[in-house]
Prior knowledge:
three-stranded antiparallel sheet; alpha+beta; two-stranded antiparallel sheet; 1 helix
Amino acid sequence: NQYSARYLVKDTLMVVSGITTTKMNCPGDGVMIRESRYYSLLEETAALRVHNRVLTLYNTDGKPLLVFTAA
């Protein structure tokens, strides 16, 4: 599926909202559940940090939500 969202970044603060996605069903155990969880975590994002080519997104409590490594 493809998705898009609005986001705002100011210094280390980040807000993601308005996620829209195509609604194609993906085969395989749990794929759609993981996709839904990913979107949910994006919307919980409150801050970010980039260190050594790794982007980490955090919630308001400072808990890491998602970690991305540069290819």
